[in-house]
Design goal:
The chain has helices at residues 71-76, 129-135, 147-151, 168-183, 201-209, 235-248, 264-277, 321-325, 337-348, 352-365, 371-396, 427-431, 438-441, 446-464, 500-505; strands at residues 2-4, 7-10, 12-14, 17-24, 47-49, 92-97, 105-111, 138-142, 189-199, 221-225, 313-318, 403-408, 484-488, 493-496. It is an alpha/beta fold. The chain has two domains: 2-311, Rossmann fold (3-Layer(aba) Sandwich); 316-508, Rossmann fold (3-Layer(aba) Sandwich). The two termini are 42 Å apart.
C-alpha cells in the first residue's frame, strides 16, 4: 500500500518490481468537463486497487493510420497493446518501481505514440518492468485525451466557454506531471529528477511541452524519438477544422456550447470524417494550437523556446521511418522510375525541376538503390529527419542544455527485411522488451546487445543528462558545426554529419508534420 495526496493505492509485485496500474491523476472529463482543462482527482476513502490498466482515450483513425491497412504491419504489431476499454474518463497513469522506499530514483515518464489521434500508455512493448528493474529507476506511463476530445480548438467560436480546448490533451499531460511532482516520492522516485521520453506522437507531445509555461519545472530532461515537431496549428486553421466538425454534427458556429451534450460516438464519427477530409500534406486536425494561452508560441520556430533552454535533449530518428508510415500502399515497395518521380513531385511540393535535383542527390549517395529505395529515402527525410535536425540545431544554438543526436540503423527482419529500420522500431530496445516484440525485431541474438546499449544510454541520460556509459564509445554533444550523431546498429559508432549532401538538398523543401 502506498499513500498519495489523494488516498492510498495498492498494486502488486512482478519479478521484484512494484507495479501500480490505472491510478487517476485527473477528474472525469466527460459531460460538463469535456474540452476543459483537467481538475485534480477526487479523494477516495480506503485503499484503491491499482492492479489493472485504466481506460484508454477513444481513438479516431484517419489517413494517418494508413500503414495499418497492410496486413503484414497489423500482424507485426499484434500483441503490442493491452486490450482495455476506451472512455472519456481516461486520465490515468501507471507506475513501475524497484521499491516504495526513500531511494529518490530517477523518474522516466513515457509519452505514448499514435500521433495526437490514438494510442495508449498501456502496452507490452512500453511496459516499464524491465527498464525499472535493470536501471533502478521509476517508470511512469500515462493516458490523456486525444483527437477531437483533446485538441478541438473552440477558442474563437466559444471563447468564454472553451478557451483552452485546443490544448486540453496537452494540459492533461501537465496534470500528470504535477501528480508525479506531488506523489512520486512515495513510489521511491525523485521529483527533482524527471525525464520525459516518448516516440512518434510521444515525441511530438514532449516537443510541445518544452514550449508550455504550465509544464515549466515539472521535468528536467527530455528525449524525443522519431517525433520532433517544429510548429503547432495556427488558430485560423484550427478554427476552420472546428467549423467542419460543427457542420458535420449539424451545428452552427454559435452552437459550439452544445458539444457537451453530443453523444461520444457521434463526436468520434465527426472526427474521423474531418481527419479524412484534410488533403494538404502536413495539415493536421486535432493537433495542439498556438492559442496564446497554454501554448503561446510554436515549439521550435523561429527558435527553441527559452523556457526550456536549460533542459538537456536526446533526440533522433530511425534510418527508414517512412517504410513503416507509407506501408499501407504496398505498391510503394515496387515502383518504376516514373512512378517514383510522380509520387515525389506530389509529396515534396517543390515542383518537378527541384524534385529532380533532389532525386539526383539522393541517387548519387546510393548508386545501387531501386526507385522504391529512393522514394523511401526522400520521404523519410521530409517526414521526420529534417525536423529532427532543425530541432537539434535550434536547441544547440541556445548554448544551454546539451543536445545529443542519434540515428537507429538496425534493420528488422520482418517482411523479408524490406522495412529496414522503420518507424517505431526503437521502442522495445529502449524499454528492454525485445522478447515481447519478436513479431517486429525477431530473435537474432545480436538484438540483446543493442538493447543493452540503447537502454543504458537512455538510463544514463535520465540520471545525469548525458547518455555516455561504458558500453558505448564516447557520445559527443551535437552542435551545428560537427553534427555528431550516434549510429545505433550492431556496430555502434559516432558519425559527424551523416548524409550531409542529402541534408543540404532537403533545405529547399518546406518542413512537414505527420
Amino acid at each position: 500500500m502506498v499513500e498519495t495526496r489523494y488516498g492510498a493505492v495498492s498494486g502488486f509485485v512482478e519479478n521484484g518490481v512494484h507495479v501500480f496500474k490505472g491510478i487517476p491523476y485527473g477528474a472525469s472529463t466527460a459531460g460538463a468537463g469535456r474540452f476543459m482543462p483537467p481538475k485534480p482527482p477526487q479523494p477516495w476513502a480506503g485503499v484503491r486497487e491499482a492492479t489493472a490498466l485504466g481506460p484508454s482515450a477513444p481513438a479516431a483513425f484517419g489517413t494517418a493510420a494508413d500503414a495499418m491497412a497492410n496486413p503484414e504491419i497489423m500482424a507485426m504489431f499484434d500483441g503490442a497493446a493491452e486490450s482495455v476499454p476506451s472512455s472519456e474518463d481516461c486520465l490515468v497513469l501507471n507506475v513501475w518501481t524497484p521499491g516504495t522506499d526513500t531511494a529518490k530514483r530517477p523518474v522516466m515518464v513515457w509519452c505514448h505514440g499514435g500521433g495526437f489521434f490514438a494510442g495508449s500508455g498501456g502496452g507490452k512493448w512500453n511496459a516499464g518492468r524491465n527498464l525499472a528493474a535493470h536501471g533502478d529507476v521509476v517508470v511512469v506511463t500515462l493516458n490523456h485525451r486525444l483527437n477531437i476530445l483533446g485538441y478541438l480548438y473552440l477558442g474563437e467560436l466559444a471563447p468564454g466557454r472553451y478557451p483552452d480546448s485546443g490544448n486540453a490533451g496537452m494540459l492533461d499531460i501537465v496534470a500528470a506531471l504535477a501528480w508525479v511532482r506531488d506523489n512520486i516520492a512515495a513510489f521511491g522516485g525523485d521529483p527533482d529528477n524527471v525525464t520525459l521520453f516518448g516516440q512518434s506522437g510521444g515525441g511530438f507531445k514532449i516537443s510541445m511541452l518544452m514550449a508550455m509555461p504550465a509544464a515549466r519545472g515539472l521535468f528536467h530532461k527530455a528525449s524525443v524519438q522519431s517525433g520532433s515537431v517544429i510548429r503547432a496549428n495556427p488558430k485560423a486553421i484550427a478554427t476552420r477544422h472546428a467549423e467542419w466538425v460543427l457542420h458535420e454534427l449539424g451545428l452552427k458556429p454559435g452552437q459550439a456550447g452544445e458539444l457537451d451534450s453530443i453523444p461520444l460516438d457521434r463526436l468520434m464519427d465527426a472526427a474521423v470524417v474531418v481527419l479524412k477530409k484534410v488533403g494538404v500534406p502536413g495539415e493536421n486536425p486535432f493537433h495542439p494550437v498556438v492559442d496564446g494561452r497554454s501554448l503561446p508560441r510554436d515549439p521550435f520556430d523561429p527558435d527553441a523556446p527559452a523556457i526550456s533552454a536549460g533542459i538537456p535533449l536526446l533526440l533522433g530518428t530511425t534510418k527508414d521511418e517512412s517504410r513503416m508510415l507509407l506501408a499501407g500502399d504496398v505498391s510503394n515497395f515496387d515502383l518504376t522510375e516514373d512512378q517514383m518521380r510522380t509520387r515525389l513531385i506530389a509529396f515534396l511540393d517543390v515542383g518537378p525541376q527541384e524534385t529532380d535535383r533532389i532525386i539526383a542527390v539522393f541517387r548519387g549517395q546510393r548508386p545501387a538503390a531501386t526507385p522504391s529505395d529512393i522514394f523511401f529515402a526522400i520521404t523519410n527525410a521530409r517526414m521526420l529527419w529534417t525536423n529532427a535536425l532543425t530541432q537539434a540545431e535550434r536547441k544547440a544554438d541556445q548554448h544551454a542544455g546539451a543536445v545529443y543526436m542519434y540515428r537507429f540503423d538496425w534493420n528488422i527482419p520482418i517482411m523479408g527485411g524490406k522495412l529496414g529500420a522503420p518507424h517505431g522500431s526503437t521502442v522495445p530496445f529502449v524499454f528492454r522488451t525485445i522478447d515481447d516484440a519478436k513479431s517486429m525485431v525477431g530473435t537474432a541474438p545480436e538484438r540483446r546487445l543493442l538493447s543493452d546499449r540503447m537502454s543504458d544510454a537512455w538510463l544514463a541520460f535520465a540520471r545525469t543528462g548525458n547518455p555516455d556509459h561504458p558500453g558505448l564509445l564516447h557520445w559527443p554533444a551535437f552542435n551545428p558545426q560537427t553534427r555528431a550523431t550516434m549510429i545505433f546498429d550492431n556496430d555502434c559508432k559516432v558519425v559527424n554529419d551523416p548524409n550531409a549532401a542529402e541534408r543540404i538538398a532537403m533545405r529547399a523543401v518546406p518542413p512537414m508534420q505527420i
